[in-house]
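Predict the assembly for these three chains.
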Amino acid sequence: MLSVEMYPSLTLGPQRIGECFYRDRQAPAQMPLFPPAACDVAAKALPPRMLVPPPAPNDPSTKTPKDEVKMELENASLWKQFTSVGTEMIITKKGRRMFPGLRLKLSGLNPSLRYILLLDIIPLDNSRYRFQSGGWQAVGGAEARLPDRVFIHPDSPATGAHWQSRTISFHHAKLTNNTLDSQGHIILHSLHRYQPRIHVIEARDVLRWGGGQHSFVFPETQFLTVTAYQNNKITELKINSNPFAKGFREDGMNSKKQRDARQKRKISDVIETLDIVNCDPCDSTELLQQPVTTGTDLQALTLASLPPLPNPSCGFRPEGACYQDTLVPEQPLDLGQAFMASQMSDIGISMAGGMQGMPGSEVANMIERSDTMGEPAYTSTFPAVQANSSFPSAPLPQSSFSSLPIPDSSDTSNPQPIDYPSILSSSSTTTPLLQQTSFTFPTPPPSNSCSPQTLLSSSSPSANTYHTIPETINPHTPADTSFPAPPSTCQSGLQDQISAHSLLAQPNQPLQGEPIARGNNSPSDQSSAAFIYPNSLPANPDPAPVTAQSLPNYNHPPAPSLPCSLPAHGAPTSFAFPSVPPHMQNLSFSNVSPGSAHHALHFQNMSHQAQAPSLAAAFPPSSFTHPSSSLPHPHPPFQPSSCFAVSSSFQQSVSSASSMAPTAYPQNMPNPSTSSYPPVEIGGIPQFNPTAHYRPEMVLHHPSLLPQLDPSLPSNLPSSTPPPALYSAFPSYPLRLCQDPHSSLSIPFRHLYRQHQHGHAHPQGSYLDMSTRAVF
DNA sequence: TCAGCTCACACTTTTGAATAGC
DNA sequence: AGCTATTCAAAAGTGTGAGCTG
């Protein structure tokens, strides 16, 4: 049985972006655990001027429901089961659905307004993985990022009432490894880690987007793409959970037994044909035995390895003695069933007790069903599930909301999710000041991922127990009493009841709608937590060491060698992300602590492929541990079932704030002023610069694309045209609207593509055509 | 040689058209 | 004629394993 130590992150309730901080008391520093803007690609996709202006302060009428948008992952428990093993997603040339799928519940929308739901999938890190020795290891750098595609929920746009009245499923989204895919599937690289994101965008009308947007990320939905399952446990889970794979279950017609039997029959038929004179076609048993003695060597060899064919005429069950005695030794207990059963016992679903004798598949189904029945089904007991998690056991990063009434971990009686907005609103309200905060997240050198590090150890003593990498734990690290350790019990329910919030209002303005509660320390801390995360950026796991260093609860030994300095808690901190839009390059977060020193993070060994603290950094990979050859610590803890959300309002605030703060550039990053980043052209098409990576944000903000959204919009950029930006880690692509000829929607689009702006320079030049044709 | 990928296969569920009944 | 329920076949979604590829 694992304890909180092994999966401490489970103990935290849903956290807002602003809460996702690593904090080290001894070395007061804080950095966002999960960059809010990381999931705000949609927000970035919208030109700032198309965004609804932030409501005026102190105007109750301006508080819109969007400020309270919440999203839950209905089948979070199922996802967590996969995550505990190390979720693998098959990708095929023709496209493969995700399983588990994304089943979501939305609330807090304005019933009368229309919204568009988007799904995109971003890399979690910059590594390629290989399944070795029962675990996933990073074996090299990631392949060049492919054009990002965004899947628009077929119901989009639909009213808030529509979205809130049903479970939202993205099961139609398909994943492919075909870089030339023309079906509109999401293109991913095999053997890479990814994180799905969901974006809720308010659509004022079909063609004109406006209003705010919210982005949600469920850490447990991260996965590793494969073309064939590597981990048998995943296969078992899939078979037991996916109805389409029912045939592969133990009792299915496509089970190994049945397949062997079929193969045997086929061989028997061949033998019968070849040796029909000596065989009684009605006695398959004889047929099976004869070949060994009378058939060819090949036949004998083949049949010798097969179980005797059950006699179809005698009603003899293959599962009976016939197979048991002859088949290759099988595990007495279906691993999948055992796993599921064990999970169930831990999950604590009310009906779990009655499921002891159920087949794994049924258990899985019940779990699936229970997912849709409400959070309480598993929330309070989910930690147990995580006991089997292969996630690193690193303690959860402490929330900067130290003063927040974090639910007692031991209190499992209340599975209800914490209403953070309420909590926060009840606390002191400090207008988030985002200035003077500077964090620089350059990209780690590719070499970082070249040192294999076992991500998932299948050699755990228990088949269902996955221990974390020992070196990630430092038992001697003193606990930070000011930041209570995560509750021993996962408020998974809480965590799954993710809340999207409008984190920030305009700088220097009171928060609109939902005031952000402040911890005693630094109210703005939380807000600062909601820093802009470079969209479309491959997550960079390498900040992990930094976070680890800053997180006492991680129990990580200090990394003195790490050439970085973390801003003291409450100290002014700025986050500079080379790949974020220029106007977001500098996130300035005013800290409550007056006079605190200004600190900037520097990763000297980072490459030019600047990457912001990634999702990987935000949540420790389930069974995937990013290797950090040069970095002593694994990923920061991951917040299972927590949803990180960011709203456009924050972006705006950040954007505004950034304008007030000096821009911080990575040391090894080119000066934006001299960067080859293409200048924004007003009313024109961006110049194609084959040597420069286009930043999607820039392209997206480019007016040349706006006519597609709203022809009436002026073609000139807003006065706040962002300055030139640094190269992004990967080439990114502008959003494009493509009409789906097959869609029954009245809306003339279904999929969004962040299209490669300079596809000619991209290996996948075919994407160039996507600008002129709808690709579905 | 081998890791990774592709494809055909058998099975299952889903979907939608056709039909029957009220 | 219109609606609902049922049936059926095709389509689509599964994992498997052999074969191919670089």
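Chain A is about 20% helix and 15% strand. The two ends of chain A are 47 Å apart (CA to CA).
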